[in-house]
Amino acid sequence: xxxxxxxxxxxxxxxxxxxxxxxxxxxxxxxxxxxxxxxxxxxxxxxxxxxxxxxxxxxxxxxxxxxxxxxxxxxxxxxxxxxxxxxxxxxxxxxxxxxxxxxxxxxxxxxxxxxxxxxxxxxxxxxxxxxxxxxxxxxxxxxxxxxxxxxxxxxxxxxxxxxxxxxxxxxxxxxxxxxxxxxxxxxxxxxxxxx
Length: 195
Description:
This protein is mostly helical.
């Protein structure tokens, strides 16, 4: 009851501006001074509170306190649940036992541990360092021997050049065989005949 009475006192009595209690007052009080009824009947809330029976006062105070404590209780329950989940999250951390034994090339360069190639990393004895490179486009049959390449050529579905020529032939035959509208400019002839 004391806490409720203090709250009621803070609501009804004026508070110096800029103080802590002014900040804690309800937005209704700050916005319009408590509404039209408070202007017509000053202190009406205190009068109503004084007229209420003791049992109603106790019930109102108890319900307000219970609502506040229920919020705390629910918060504690959720907090326990979340903390238990946090405990299980530790098991999801990657294990050093199964880590990938590799470092990406940017980190190797920054650490100064970058190794720029060995003899077996490139074709024809190249290691991708300056002066020791090979152009892979020079030999388009690289993955296959001559016999494998000849065997693969037997099963080609269509040559892309032949496909392109066929498309061009269809386009040109279409242009040649169709009629196109011709617009005659007779205005110049009329203008010349009128002169």
